[in-house]
Amino acid sequence: MRVIRVASVALLGAAALGAAAPAALADDGNHNITSFGFTVSPSTVAPGGTVTLNATGCEVPSVTVSSGVFDTVTLEEGHSATARVDDDAKPGAEYDVTFDCKGEKGTTPLTIREGSGHNDHTGSVMPGNGVRAGAGGSLSGMSPGEVGAGAAFVAGALGFGAYKMRRRSGSDA
Question: Has UniProt tagged this entry with the keyword Signal (predicted)?
Answer without folding.
Answer: yes
